[in-house]
Amino acid sequence: MLPWFTERYLQIIDRLLKQKLHHALLLSGPAGIGKYELAITLAKVILCRNPTARGCCETCQSCLLFDASTHPDFYALVSEKQLGVDKIREGIGKLSGMSQLGANKVLVIPAADLITESAANALLKTLEEPTNKTFIILLTAKAQHLLPTILSRCEKHFFSTPAPAQSLKWLKGNGVDDVTPALLEAYGNAPLRLKQALTNESGISYREFCDGFDALLAGKKDALSLANDWQEYAVQVVSWVQQFTHKSFLQSQQVQDYQNFQVCVDALKSLMHPGINKAVVLCAVLDTIANPEHQRTRNIK
Ligand SMILES: [Zn+2]
């Protein structure tokens, strides 16, 4: 179990064992802190035939099937697109009827904010009148996007990012060495997001960005060549530049730093448009930071 969840995890199990756990749980908090991992671990405990106060037994038929990803009474509605009525009905369909192993059934919805309004209405009925021994675990990084009718029917668990010291310790224990608090902060203090980025071969690492950005500020690299190299990761790069400008402004209180920050905010908006030339947007941002006088000239024109 991720250490920042341990306390809440044990409380939830305690209520499960006392048969007091609500049938619909909402786990809400920033992306990259491990909510899905928590949901999966909870699902396994809820399904286990011999759970204890510490968690599942790991040896019963249910635990073995769960580990083999073939548990017939577990279903996760994983989706990156909107979750429409069909998908929700498919999930609910898995919960109707008797559980195949004769114990609990669990449905996990990893991105509950992607549920469309009509699909939410389909889900409401199940949330109001769940079939026997059924648990639904909803996850979201955007609880404010959920319909109030869904929110009000869930037992809500809100999580924030773990304390940096705890995250750094966990990262070290999980093979991610050499991480500084600044690097963690660059990933929104979300340790799983950072781990994924550092162990992911594709994409751009924060270190690569820092090396290139330092070279830019030192006049050893130009904005155009960096923008060409980094255009595929434009959103990530501009987010990092934005953090840099935000920090600079907090320290300096200079108008120029605030303007630089605003340039990043506008660039991130532009990058949301499909078909936008990312290299051009990124080049303008990098050029502004490296050569503020260019921006002034642009404004005068
Ligand atoms: Zn078990």
TrEMBL record:
Cytoplasm is among the record's keywords: no
Reactions this protein catalyses: DNA(n) + a 2'-deoxyribonucleoside 5'-triphosphate = DNA(n+1) + diphosphate
GO cellular component, one term: DNA polymerase III complex
RNA-binding recorded as keyword: no
EC class name: transferase
Domain of life (superkingdom): Bacteria
Keywords linked to the UniProt accession: DNA-directed DNA polymerase, Nucleotidyltransferase, Transferase
One family name in Pfam for this protein: DNA_pol3_delta2
Residue ranges that the Swiss-Prot or TrEMBL entry lists as coiled coil: none
GO terms (BP aspect): DNA-templated DNA replication
Entry EC number(s): 2.7.7.7
Molecular function GO labels: DNA-directed DNA polymerase activity
PANTHER family assigned to the protein according to its UniProt record, in alphabetical order: DNA POLYMERASE III SUBUNIT DELTA, REPLICATION FACTOR C / DNA POLYMERASE III GAMMA-TAU SUBUNIT
Protein name per its UniProtKB record: DNA-directed DNA polymerase
Organism: Alteromonas pelagimontana
